[in-house]
Amino acid sequence: MDPALTPEQDAVRRTLREALAKSCGIEEVRAAAAGAQGYDPALWRLFADQLGLPGLTLPVQHGGTGLGPVELALACEETGRALLPSPLLASSVLAAALIAAHGTDEQRATLLPALASGERTAALVLAAPPALALGLVPRRPPGLPNGTVAGGGRAGGIQARPGPAGDGAGDTAGGDGAAGAGGAGAGLGGGWLVYGGAGQVLDGARADLLVVAAHTGGFPRSRTSLFLVQGDAPQVSRSRLAAMDATRAPARVELRDAPAVPLGDPVRDAAPALAEAGLLAGVAVAAEAVGAADQCLARTVEYVQVRKQYGRAIGSFQAVQHRLADVYVAVETARSAVYYAAWTLAQRGIDGAAGDGPGEAGEAGEVWTAVPLALAHALDALRTAAAEAIQLHGGIAITWEHDAHLYFKRAAADELLFGPPHLLRTLAAERARLFASARG
């Protein structure tokens, strides 16, 4: 791995940082998060038109810029630094990546250009917690029932069945699912019906398109399949939830026999595709955490240089310097881990190893441990940086209204949605088979 950025990569980071500094200060973040959309649509379209942010990693033939995970990490580091409320993670990283990897040629050609241009947004609906459904934590963590999957399992969660207009080909033994997919599946109506509900759907209250992970196949052929559902369909009920981190804007989505079209082949198990999307999402969330932690550190260093106690700036005290040095080391090592995880993911795509699973040994399977470890380290760094920012700002940072608490809430919310760090490290240890000899 070459740690030096290319001129193109440096331009991505520099351009986005300058744009965010001009138009996305803390007050703008608060106003956008409190708005009806949960983000500033005009700013999102501006970033789409001038920077191509929504389509950063999407193919050029579908309206994207065709860049890779490293460039995505650099962009997310800057959006995390500003705590930008946007559909970037939910629409551009999760939903669009699944459409690009799992959809048919016609579905990709129809849906991706609108997502890449920022004209439309999408959200991924998961009945299970995001960290579990995306394969970022062990499949059976403590406190969750065994067998929990992205679609919710054999009972409960979100279920899908062929509707009156479908011929059931997607659920017939040996069928190829072409008829159940409605041909290319570009339209969104008829063929299948999805029923159930999911909470903590990122940007679920405002997305135009829902990519729903649902349980299909019944008891003998249990699997998770992906479906496309119109966000404004009458059978869809969506409500924005009160959240600790208002910049993430989670929602509760209820589906009552909503018309759906399979994303790709409904016979194909979508669990591997969700795990692949989890790798990209893990890099994006980790990069956002690094950017937020770096901003916490910068603001705290600036404050301790002007805050005086006993006639001296508190930044001159050795104890304060030691605490900030620990934060600096945590942020820089987390940044290195994130860049390495993004690089391994990019190399994996270049080498054509997209089909390698989590158990693959050697360089091809290294990304399956690098991503959860980087995410765990980044979440720890953000929590440490946010806590130290509150402590070193003293009494003025005790109230929720202080800016430091925006970063503290982001740290707590990210751990709840995509962690916690100890389970991320547990998964990495299992994939690396660190304790296989002990069990044997």
Automatic annotation (TrEMBL):
Residue ranges occupied by any Acyl-CoA dehydrogenase/oxidase N-terminal domain in the UniProt entry: 6-119
Keywords, comma-separated and alphabetical: FAD, Flavoprotein, Oxidoreductase
Biased composition (Gly residues): 165-174
Domain Acyl-CoA dehydrogenase/oxidase C-terminal: 283-431
Protein origin, superkingdom: Bacteria
Family matches, as InterPro entries: Acyl-CoA_Oxase/DH_mid-dom_sf, AcylCo_DH-like_C, AcylCo_DH/oxidase_C, AcylCoA_DH/ox_N, AcylCoA_DH/ox_N_sf, AcylCoA_DH/oxidase_NM_dom_sf
UniProt keyword rRNA-binding, yes or no: no
GO molecular function, one term: oxidoreductase activity
Enzyme Commission number(s): 1.-.-.-
Coiled-coil residue spans: none
Region of interest called Disordered, as start-end residue ranges on this chain: 145-174
Cofactor(s), by name: FAD
Family: Belongs to the acyl-CoA dehydrogenase family.
The protein's name: Acyl-CoA dehydrogenase family protein
Organism: Streptacidiphilus cavernicola
